[in-house]
Specification:
single chain; alpha/beta; Rossmann fold; five-stranded mixed beta sheet; four-stranded parallel beta sheet; about 40% helix
Length: about 300
């Protein structure tokens, strides 16, 4: 009888435990900004004086908010603003240098996405961390406001987000007067060979910028965020505009090879019209504060008639 009388209590405790576990798991997988140690609310400390930015997009945001003097470390590929080049490097997204990070004695590390390596490292070392998703344009706006809150730069963050929205809206109004053109956005292939083509599917900031810039992403229905596609699939979809993004730069020799690659597909409308563009700006693949410049570059390639010079 004693066991039966305690059964409801045991069931109650079990249900409570499972409920708490479910809430915890939901918190762990939810998208958006979050802390690796705390609930997604501003940390209790009044200030963070030693910050590491573990992605170029994060570096851009933190410096633009005026918190650059607090940054003691940045990821290897952080090049903007220029003063970020003088800050200590902590490695790349895949291979962060743990020893270097510890030597910098940070009290906050901000990284992009679910960075399991850095998240685990921060927990083990007792370092506060903040993770922000920046896959889409609205994610960027949320990340700016969240980082602004954590760094007590709320007013600059609100201004920055509003300014980016204003610029993107102005560009959208400019391009919506033209019929959308079918766009292939190439994210790199080996010069001299049209195999291994990579592009963007839907659900990415690049896809959104193509649409905003007056284009129609011909691989919006492809599975995955950044799918690899075949030359045959590209030919079947007949793009009006071909844009290759080569953020690491392009030598004159490789540009000739790439141009020759596309010339072999002479039946494509983009090739016939000469609408092939190679964009080498370092910000093109970074969902950071220069996203409006990326949108402008895409729009100038998709609808050059709206701009004085599509290469400006």
């Amino acid at each position: 009888m004693k066991r039966i009388r305690n059964l409801p209590l045991a069931l109650t405790l079990a249900c409570t435990f499972l409920g708490l576990a479910a809430v915890y798991l939901l918190y762990e997988v939810r998208s958006g900004s979050r802390s690796a140690l705390d609930a997604p609310l501003p940390a209790p400390h009044p200030d963070y004086g030693r910050v590491i930015c573990a992605a170029p997009s994060i570096t851009e945001i933190v410096f633009t908010l005026g918190a650059g003097p607090r940054v003691v470390g940045v990821s290897d590929y952080s090049v903007f603003p220029p003063e970020a080049k003088d800050v200590a490097r902590i490695g790349g997204q895949i291979n962060p240098n743990r020893e270097r990070i510890l030597s910098l004695e940070p009290d906050l590390i901000i990284f992009q996405g679910k960075h399991q390596v850095l998240s685990r490292f921060c927990r083990e070392q007792g370092i506060r961390s903040l993770s922000v998703d920046i896959d889409r344009i609205d994610h960027l706006m949320s990340a700016i406001l969240t980082i602004g809150t954590w760094l007590h730069e709320e007013v600059p963050a609100e201004r920055l987000a509003a300014d980016i929205k204003r610029q993107l809206s102005a560009l959208a109004r400019k391009t919506q007067s033209r019929p959308p053109r079918k766009v292939f956005l190439g994210l790199g292939h080996t010069p001299g060979d049209l195999t291994g083509l990579m592009t963007t599917g839907s659900g990415t900031f690049l896809h959104e910028l193509i649409e905003l810039a007056g284009g129609r992403n011909i691989f919006a229905d492809a599975p995955g965020s950044y799918p690899r596609i075949s030359k045959e699939a590209l030919v079947r979809r007949r793009p009006d505009v071909i844009i290759e993004v080569l953020a690491k730069g392009l030598s004159p020799e490789n540009q000739l090879l790439l141009k020759s690659d596309w010339d072999r597909l002479s039946t494509l409308p983009a090739v016939k019209a000469g609408r092939i563009y190679f964009l080498t700006d370092d910000y093109m693949l970074i969902p950071g504060v220069r996203i409006s410049q990326t949108a402008h570059r895409l729009a100038a390639a998709i609808h050059p008639e709206l701009f004085e010079d599509p290469h400006d």
